[in-house]
Amino acid sequence: MPGSDSALRVILYGQARSEGQGSAGDAARYEIQRRRLECAPRAWDLLSIALSVVTADLAALRDQSPDGWTREIELDIAVADAPFWAGQARPLAEALAFLTTDRWTLRFHEGGVQTAQPRDPVRPPEDCVVLLSGGLDSLVGAIDLAAAGRRPFAISQTVRGDADKQVDFAARIGGGLGHLQLNHNASSPGAQESSQRARSLIFIAFGVLAATALQRYHDGDRVPLYVCENGFIAVNPPLTGGRLGSLSTRTAHPEFLGRLQRVLDAADLRVGIANPYGAKTKGEMLRECADQTLLKAEAVRSTSCGRFQRFNYRQCGRCVPCQVRRAAFLAWGGIPDTTDYVYEPLGRNDADHSSFDDVRSVAIALAAARADGIETWLGHALASPLIGDRAALLAMLKRGMAELHTLHEAYGVT
């Protein structure tokens, strides 16, 4: 916020020049240029916006806001096409508000990066882009695309603990996928906010940027960008009243993806975001994966845990994503789940296991859905006008709850 005491100056695509500055994107731009990829100017602008957002998300501490959570964040962002983006300030702010439950104000200015196009550009021949995180869902998605005869260009956001998995997965799928690993390298001085609800925007922005580099895009075609996430986690209905709003991730929620798609369309970026598994549970994704041999060999190596780094790169076994993962392995029956969980026996009645907040929240949600019916329990979770087939999502959520019930029953969670 220029002129205010709380203003933070962030250097995009460069290094901070003083202790009081933040920075982001230098390594990503270097890698794009090193690979000689020719990307659309507005895709670069979108990346500049995403880098600014993720850095602000790190720098603005939630516990310093009036309610201890909701922040008011103002951003002044330099882009190459400020008049266009000024017209998208409100749609972007609304998408960010849904993603993070903060209040965003975006202002755009001239002078943004205008990356020189390579003299001898490389235009990858792949026909689509898939986000490959090192997680189980993205692994299944990439396997299925390759098995269906698609040629996906795999884009990864490098995360400590998952970088090697991303490389290995890309090498083993479909005889070897084209693969690009990028890192936002966002940093800000002082304490950093741990919730990072906006981090998914940067991953998608990397995917959009890469999609505009493909030969197919330069030929004038529309390029699919696959964000593969099971429907239960994508919708991520609040399990209890205490998990409302920002306590649940909204990375692949159909409303967020729909809002972002509208911005891409307005920008004339011919990239279509799709989640092929929006009406599938995680267990169904595993059972229906097109290459069961490869999946059985790699599934246990994948990461699902929301606290992976916090537990020294081990999966906790008790957070909601871990419970969904464990329930999916039971529903799959493909191989035993030999993941090295920190907290394996969920039914143990202590603060670390069945009494842990996320385990208890799932148990409460299962009881509420049984007692009141799933639609009453869901409340307004499927009320968005951007949700198309509500009946299919409702049926999927019922099946997802059934998978979690089987997990809790198997471990004697009470």
Commentary on this structure:
The protein is of the alpha/beta class and 414 residues long. It folds into three domains: 10-109, no CATH class; 128-187 and 197-274, Rossmann fold (3-Layer(aba) Sandwich), CATH 3.40.50; 300-411, no CATH class. It has 16 helices and nine strands. Strands 7-6-5-8-9 form a five-stranded parallel beta sheet, sandwiched between helices. The protein is globular and about 60 Å long. The chain starts with 9 loop residues before the first strand and ends with a helix. The relative contact order is 0.12. The mean pLDDT is 92.
Topology at a glance:
Elements: E1 10-12, E2 22-24, H1 26-34, H2 41-59, E3 72-78, H3 82-86, H4 89-100, E4 103-109, E5 128-131, H5 136-147, E6 152-157, H6 163-172, E7 178-182, H7 199-211, H8 215-218, E8 223-226, H9 231-235, H10 254-266, E9 271-274, H11 282-288, H12 292-298, H13 320-332, H14 357-372, H15 374-378, H16 390-411
Parallel strand pairs: 1-2, 3-4, 5-6, 5-8, 6-7, 8-9
Question: Which tags fit this structure?
Answer:
414 residues, alpha/beta, Rossmann fold, 3 domains, five-stranded parallel beta sheet, two-stranded parallel ribbon, 9 strands
